[in-house]
Amino acid sequence: MLCIKTDLEKIVKNTAIRNAIIYSIGALFLRGISLYMLPIYTRLLTKVDYGMLDLLTTITAVLSPVFCGGLPQVVFIYYFHTEGIEREKMIKQSIYTFFLYSTPILFITVLVSPFIASRISSPETPVTAFPLLFMAIMPAFMGFAAQITYTILMNGQKALFVSTMQIVTGLLMAILNIYGVVYLRMGYLAVIGSTFIVTLIETLFCIYLGLKYRRSSDFSFDYEKAKEYLMIGLPIVFGALANWILISADRWFLAYFRTMEELGLYAVSYKFGFVFQQLLIVPFMSAISPRLMSKFKDSLVDAVKYKSKIFLFYSILGILAIVFFILILPFVYKIFVGKEFQSSIEFTLWILFGFLFWGAAQLRTLYLIYLKKTKLVIFITFIAAISNLIACFILIPDYGPKGAAWATGIAYFVFMLVGMIYERIELNKTL
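Request: output the structure for the sequence above.
Response:
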């Protein structure tokens, strides 16, 4: 017991955990904006409006990995296999590959956007191709610049710079949201429009950073390298689509089998789970992942021991965080959530545990990513996604939002469990 305590004290004091705290502060402003705006959203938007906002957000979420082609993840992997000028060439190669790959997909998406708009439109919340295109599709395309920039900065452990960018972005998002929703009374379209404007500004700033800090202008595009990157990245896209099913299928099941009002309620409850993920789990993973990848490179035996301690620390911290969330949630709901949405609190517990399992799954599959076994990670994600579809189909028609929350917890637990099994299989081959 004393040994465990000493190990945990060492973990808390190291750079990775300090970076996790810094990332949490940045996420508090950027990802926490959806929570801070809840008092306005749940008082000025109807349940139907909030449900439509959630559906449009899921469209952006599914298009983002499709446009990116898994290239930010490729940069994350190759970052630890290259150095100096070779690393810069790898990043440039990834950027050029992105434009070559994603531009035709963007063109096709523009062409089909009127059809997408007609499928999700309703008399209460009409959606036309124009706002769908410019406020939901384009942020998914432009977001590549921010994703690759954050990947490079996080791998370089530039936690303070990343958090500063997130704080500025979050504040700008808040200002535009308040202006659009409160003063212009544009409803959910103001939220989608604010995302578009902020993403555009963020993209331009990331381009500026890339031009400012480049070491050399000497570069020639390598089609074989582009093919190599896409061979690694595209399977990640399919994994991301499976992950989208894992995250978003419950919304579409609710919209189809139940009502938009119930979807709006569930979306508010899920927002608290999302905040829990973004403020605690994602910063933790952002700080730990680069360190673990470096340890995998240096010494697998030491890395496995270190990861076991990290997993124990994560589990204890996560359970304590959930207990804390549950205790303060009734008070938070009174402040942040309008009366029309108060009943959504009953769905939150399962969602919180679901995201805790999600973080554990990320830890367990990190070694597989280091081995570049992206297809295996995709297979694991697909198993979890299928379990989510089955759970949603069984539970949502009868139990509505509560069934969706149960399905979320079940699917993420399957994700964690299968990830642990395949991690152990790969480690047994090496150790």
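Residues 2-430 form one domain.
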